[in-house]
Amino acid sequence: MIDLHQLKIFAAVAREGSLTRASEAVFLSPPAVSGQLKALEETLGLSLFERESRGMRLTPAGKILLEEANLALSAASKVTAKAQFLKSGVHGDCRIGTILDPAILKLGEFISILIGRHPGLRLLFSQGRSGEIMERVLRGTLDAGYVIGNIDEPLLESFMISPVTLRVVGPYAWAKQLRNANWETLATFPWIATPETCSFHQISMQMFARRGVTPKTVIEADQESILRGFVASGVGLTLLREDIAVAAEAQDEAFIWEGGHEYSQLCFIYPRAAKTDVRVAAMLGAVKQIWSLPAD
Predict the structure, then answer these.
(1) Which runs of consecutive H residues, i.e. helices, occur in 140-241?
(2) pTM as predicted
(3) Over residues 106-129, mean pLDDT
């Protein structure tokens, strides 16, 4: 079995070209360096150096093996550094609440960056509605999460990742009735609502309240794919993210009402009390890099 300490001595002698200088570099006496070098040559069954009056010169075999020795020493150094990092670096579970499609949140990039920087972390994702994610972060059952909407909670820290535009859509077959509809007319159509814990619920209720009308809710659903499906089936109107609305209209599944737009934001939230938590700091760094946001 080759001793890494002997490889270090081999590399030092090759670098210094002298037993005396090499002994100073590795903090050993010249006889000790010579003994370790001889032991390595016996293990390998090869002469690594030609002993000359002016110093030590690598043999052809020594030149080849020096490259391999340097690679082995570099690999050992990386193992040691990684072990030190795992002992003192960021590690543990990160419980993260998610909404929407993983691709929209760029979760693939998030995982790649975070685990690449901090291999001691274990990421645990949990899907939910914005209101549910906020509640769980507040209760401490999630460490952080993605939500849509304005965050007005003193116990939470948040920052906007991306603006979100929402559109009122209805079945494509209703395009003629909807094209020239006003808010009063719009409120007479069947409305597909979302649960109160969904950010879309609050946004839509505020949208109608500002116009002094109340929607005629006929059904409730909590997933955008289900909302889109109900609209395509002719059930009623609803509020969808603009990218989904445009895609649905392109396939003649929905008609986008041009009477107004609603604006919100995608945010990343975490407990204010956890600002100094190294796991939270690691997550923030990854999110901000992915979304090209200022570091601080």
Answers:
(1) 175-179, 183-186, 199-210, 224-232
(2) 0.69
(3) 93
